[in-house]
Amino acid sequence: MEPSRSPGAHRRASRLVVGIAIAVVAGLVSGPAPAAAATDSPWQPPVPGAVVRGFVEPASRFGPGHRGVDLVAPPGAPVVAAGRGTVVFAGAVAGALHVVVLHRGGVRTSYSYLLDVAVAVGDAVEGGVVVGHAGGVDHDGEHGGVVHFGVRVGEAYVDPTVLFRPGDLRDRVRLVPTDGPPGVGDSWARTAASEAWSLADGLGATAPPTASGPSGSSGADGCGGGIPLVGPVVDVVCAGVDWAAARTRDALRAGLSVLAAAGRAGKRLAAALAPELEHLADALRRGAREVVAAYLDQPVMRVLADVVEIGERFLEWTDRECAGDAPAADGTGGSGHLVMGVAGIGSASATAGGRSFGLDVDALGYHADEVHWFSYASDGGAYEADDTYDDIQVAAKRLAAQLRALDASEPGREVDLIAHSQGGVVVERFLRFEYDASDPTFPPLGTVVTLSSPHRGAPLATSVGALRRGSKTRKALDLADRILPGPPSDATSVGQLAEDSAFMARLHARALPEHLDITTVGGTDDLVVPANRIRIPGATEVVVAVDGANDHSAIHHDDRALQVVRSALEGRPPPCTSLLEGMRSAVAPVLISRVEGDLGEYLTTYLEVRK
């Protein structure tokens, strides 16, 4: 029996239906659709909707412009490939979903701000094949939804409507030679990371619509105009300015409201911050280059980003789908599958196949003979904490080998994966780089749940990396490593868990397999892995108030967290959380991340200045 939906879920469904109806009507009355391709053209528009914002070539590499077209598309409408090619990117960039298809002649088409992704990297697609569904919102216009469509020839963005004009494409743009069909030779050699960078570059060089209309130019000034997009704050504020103008305003107001509700101190802080942050956000939205330049290195930029993130997290919480009657994890129910538990950094197991962390498998309904534990050891046997400090990529390969061995011993049994802390990153690496659902040597995967796992990197690891780059602070860390318990600061896995590590960049550039049920769970006050670092795009995310002095170490046996895990295992919506939990989950993780992530940078700078 399908679980009942909450009233909030019904309200969201109603809003979606209304949004689709508005978008359809808008598409009918807003003007003609893009010119159709000639009958002999291999190209077709990704959606039939009208152009609501045209292509504007920027005057310079980092200048304002609009490197693509925005097409009316009701939320959930199918988005199709414009022509035959190979998918070279499918995933998230800057918090939104995108697909890039490589065609002959070095032409790349990109489909941005999708609700979901229906293809994977390496897929061969024909024109008209659905690559995803529309999910972009026309915040500053009158349309219910839009899709951003871009075209690149080599590294140059061109007007996408050129594809649909009569005649030979070669007469209109200079194509790039390739050594064979899409997916072969240098055209295929581009990594997903470089595709993501090109997407961010193209989307980041945009400016808000002007009074001159959708195809008008905003002039020389723009958000970041003339300034390379460096640093996460500028990326967040500038890269999303076309799409996030209204959303950012809403999130900023929500963030200030949440702060104001957090006691007298929060109310005073919100009142003090509101005028300056609202002024800055409005100036950035208008795209004044001198304002961006003036504020680029100022603390207020980070404050703005943090308050907006707080607001976005709270707005997401208010719009969640949840069940008020979710059952407790009391030993009944469950998935009926096997389970493999994957522990985190610093864990150990005294025996081969022995328990490695305190996951309450009995409460989740597993029988003793259904429970298996991952080993970090090369032989799959007993392991020590030192084994968890090694390369996470190697650990992911060992997880693959142990799952194959499990399937060989119990063929065809579905396996759930439940991981804690670093173990969740091991699982994510396995899913993105090792797992293949079509490989018969792997068991079928059931539900994947991670508990307090730094899928977006750990701020403390980021600070450790910054401290190790300073000569004075590196010596202090070396001394601390000799006398304090815990992972050594120069451990391979610690470096990989830093938010800015090459490992994290490669991890996020690779698409996840389709049809996985993933839930990530965090603690509101987790100091080791703040809950705003647990996100996997497309996964269900739940943050709970953990009962205990240490959210990170208590979460795998906490009643509220286990209730979330049981719901995930049984395919139910997650349990609802209280308003207080919603507010704490919006504020605390952002503040913890800021303090911990900047600690190493500030301390290193302070010591360098005192030389």
Describe the structure.
The chain is an alpha/beta fold. The chain folds into 3 domains: 7-202, Glucose Permease (Domain IIA); 232-318, no CATH class; 338-609, 3-Layer(aba) Sandwich (Rossmann fold), CATH 3.40.50. The chain contains 17 helices and 16 strands. The protein has helices at residues 7-29, 186-189, 192-204, 232-239, 241-260, 263-286, 289-295, 299-318, 392-409, 422-434, 459-469, 471-483, 492-496, 502-509, 551-554, 559-569, 579-609; strands at 51-53, 69-72, 78-80, 85-93, 96-102, 107-117, 124-125, 130-134, 146-153, 156-158, 338-342, 371-373, 415-420, 445-451, 517-523, 540-544. The strands form 2 sheets. Strands 1, 2, 3, 4, 5, 6, 7, 8, 9 and 10 form a 10-stranded antiparallel sheet that branches. A 6-stranded parallel sheet has the order 12-11-13-14-15-16, with helices on both faces. Helix 8 runs antiparallel to helix 17. The chain is globular.
